[in-house]
Amino acid sequence: MRAITVPQPGGPDALVWAEVPDPEPGPGEVIVDVRASGVNRADLLQRQGHYPPPPGAPAYPGLECSGVISAIGPEVTGWSVGAEVCALLAGGGYAERVAVPAGQLLPVPAGVDLVDAAALPEVACTVWSNVVGVGRLAPGDTLLVHGGGSGIGTFAIQFGVALGATVLTTARATKHPRLRELGAAQAIDYREQDFVEEVRRVTDGRGADVILDIMGAAYLSRNIAALATGGRLVVIGMQGGTKAELNLGALLTKRASVAATTLRSRPLAEKAEIVRGVRDEVWPLVEAGTVRPVVDRRLPFTEAAQAHRLVESNDHLGKVLLTNG
Ligand SMILES: NC(=O)c1ccc[n+]([C@@H]2O[C@H](COP(=O)([O-])OP(=O)(O)OC[C@H]3O[C@@H](n4cnc5c(N)ncnc54)[C@H](OP(=O)(O)O)[C@@H]3O)[C@@H](O)[C@H]2O)c1
């Protein structure tokens, strides 16, 4: 089969579509013939040599895919050859075939095209586990989603609204109309406006109950300033660095909490639990059309370098997908 390999870490042209050995299904795994794979921010880091795959994961990038099951390994029940699926991966989605632990498979939701289904597993699992699991978002809460135009952000806005929250988001101004269409009550231009002031203004001084953050260090103190009493800051990205000073006094006064999580390196059993939760609680919203995949564009695997350039530029809105054929 062919896959996107990275013979030498580097810029987008380090991605090389090359012949590689076929994967074999191990116990508890199936082989998926990949139709499409989502491009995630983490893939850019992996290409640069900064985010190696966890032990046992395929060497090629790709944290999610959609496709058709073509082989089933020992000890797998409940899935059959020919089923259309999408899957959360620890790597290897940028390929014609990938071995997937059965606990990380999801059926393609009714009403979603097989290619677009590749836009869902990573964002659905990340957003559900952090916004519901860690952030405990409740109806009537205010949710602040940083980077509303990202793959994660476009999903989190819709999901927050579906849970009955008021959703505020930060993004460059050109993305605001689309983010309002997705349900954001207020889009904040983080380049021109102070998001802390805007959140306070919109919430009559109360602040946000839950903040889903992708900026890390650069936003830590401002995020704490923007939290409501009892608020929960959930950091899932470090685009603004990893180290910052934390004012425990500000946190303590608000009886607030800070959490930070990652999905890729979790044990298989935890990933399977998250995927089960997504299937039970998120898939019905997708099938009802309340939450939809937001796809900026599809490009063939042979144009992976262009897809990475686009994501690096942040000119995309939603997900960029790589497709086979
Ligand atoms: N922890 C986990 O398990 C996990 C899982 C998946 C993703 N993530 C993280 O989640 C983040 C989003 O991932 P993705 O693949 O969806 O990203 P993406 O589509 O590449 O989007 C990145 C976004 O960052 C925004 N941005 C840049 N500077 C900003 C700032 N100062 N304030 C607010 N937004 C800013 C850009 O929007 P503008 O054009 O508006 O600037 C862009 O939409 C990444 O940091 C990724 O590492 C974490």
Automatic annotation (TrEMBL):
Q: What Gene3D superfamilies does the record point to?
A: Medium-chain alcohol dehydrogenases, catalytic domain (3.90.180.10), NAD(P)-binding Rossmann-like Domain (3.40.50.720)
Q: Which InterPro entries match?
A: ADH-like_N, ER, GroES-like_sf, NAD(P)-bd_dom_sf, Quinone_OxRdtase_PIG3
Q: Identify one Pfam family in the record.
A: ADH_N
Keywords assigned: NADP, Oxidoreductase
Q: Which residues form the Enoyl reductase (ER) domain?
A: 10-322
Q: Which SMART domains match?
A: PKS_ER
Q: Which NCBIfam families match?
A: quinone_pig3 (TIGR02824)
Protein name, per record: NAD(P)H-quinone oxidoreductase
